[in-house]
């Protein structure tokens, strides 16, 4: 069983998404990632990892940006019922007020997306910056920020399969896709939960820079890439 | 092709690693993760994500620990040839001098592992703390720290497939496994590069807490789990 899986995965990793040429025109260079209280660790750093590898191949700048340019914690608003302590504190490079011009804006998810006061400045900044972006990307429940900013109205989109009811309450006429790993609609990319963000950003890297670049990034991360349609979690989480 | 892959992956995720019972005896609770200059983003935060999800189910504490208890940056020692700027700064919770008692010590990799001065205190702390640990875990080139600390001597182990020559120069009579995703030998778990750390920690969670817990964590992360033997990257990287 595992040998068959290894062979098929190897084949898919090597060939399934072959032959995508880079997009014509200027490539995006300045990429911002949102931080806020109770952000989800891999939503941010899975994407960050792929961009770090991309940065070895092509010139980009990656900025962590939050409301006040200080420190953003993984720590939730209320203690876990288990009593666990699993916090991490990351320093932002810029605040929403002094952020540099961005070509790409990425919003991840986490428990913080459930807190309106926490998300208000993130939604406001997202709404303000979107018209000047080349690409807008969300991971996980970060899609709720795009929906609340009106960016997904009328578009196809996806989000965390285990937080479906929460996110899909927002926005107007959004065509939510419960069985997609990630979705592109125009210049907006939305991904499913947590690790799906890495597959989405790899799909986006392939779309922008072509297959040779995305394959190099994928293999450097030793990542088994799942494509836009490769989703089992919609079904596993009852959608 | 993708439909077949989805079905097989779904089958493997749901059933391939079923029926592992939890380990008897007291469960590990206090888990430290090493930080140092030029750590690899997902080596730390992929593992952190799985532990964060685990913390929702069972009481654990996760501590980020570095040499001086201050801030540790992703930033490399030398600028990238591309001119890219992809830095991130994370605050440590403790230093090696004031670290709390640990049941588990996790060392990730990154460019920093190539710098002897940076790694000297990490190697020293790892050597000191190992005898009192329940479990020792490395991700990626973090295996070089365990090898330099003498912990892998005579053991089976693996590491990043794209940094194989660098890591395998260290240690004595280590039985390096070039085609494994992750390896357990006694209480020491070593994983292959970057994202393999997540598969390794999920394998470890299953070993310690059983399949029910590890499946919940895996599905919450929307992670396609690859088992210890599911490796294609040794071959892809010419091993």
Automatic annotation (TrEMBL), chains A, B:
Q: Which residues form the signal peptide?
A: 1-18
Chain ranges passing through the membrane: none
Q: Which Gene3D superfamilies match?
A: 3.40.50.880
Superkingdom of the organism of origin: Eukaryota
Q: Which CDD domains match?
A: GATase1_PfpI_2 (cd03139)
Q: Does this entry carry the keyword Metal-binding?
A: no
- Look up keyword Protein biosynthesis and say if it applies: no
Organism, per UniProt?
A: Orbilia ellipsospora
Q: What is the recorded name of this protein?
A: DJ-1/PfpI domain-containing protein
Which keywords has UniProt assigned to this entry?
A: Signal
Q: Residue limits of the DJ-1/PfpI domain?
A: 81-197
């Amino acid at each position: 069983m595992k040998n068959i899986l290894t062979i098929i995965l190897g084949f898919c990793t090597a060939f399934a998404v072959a032959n995508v040429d880079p997009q014509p025109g200027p490539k995006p260079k300045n990429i911002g990632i949102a931080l806020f209280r109770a952000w989800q660790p891999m939503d941010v750093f899975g994407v960050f990892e792929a961009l770090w590898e991309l940065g070895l191949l092509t010139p980009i700048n990656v900025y962590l940006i939050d409301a006040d340019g200080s420190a953003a914690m993984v720590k939730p608003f209320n203690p876990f019922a288990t009593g666990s302590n699993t916090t991490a504190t990351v320093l932002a490079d810029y605040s929403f007020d002094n952020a540099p011009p961005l070509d790409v804006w990425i919003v991840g998810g986490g428990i913080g997306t459930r807190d309106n006061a926490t998300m208000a400045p993130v939604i406001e900044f997202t709404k303000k910056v979107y018209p000047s972006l080349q690409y807008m990307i969300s991971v996980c429940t970060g899609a709720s920020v795009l929906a609340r900013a009106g960016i997904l109205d009328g578009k196809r989109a996806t989000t965390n399969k285990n937080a479906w009811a929460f996110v899909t309450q927002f926005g107007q006429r959004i065509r939510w896709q419960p069985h997609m790993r990630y979705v592109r609609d125009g210049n907006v990319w939305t991904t499913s939960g947590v690790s799906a963000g890495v597959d989405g950003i790899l799909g986006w890297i392939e779309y922008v820079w072509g297959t040779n670049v995305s394959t190099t990034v994928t293999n450097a991360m030793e990542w088994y890439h799942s494509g836009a349609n490769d989703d089992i979690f919609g079904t596993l989480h009852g959608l």
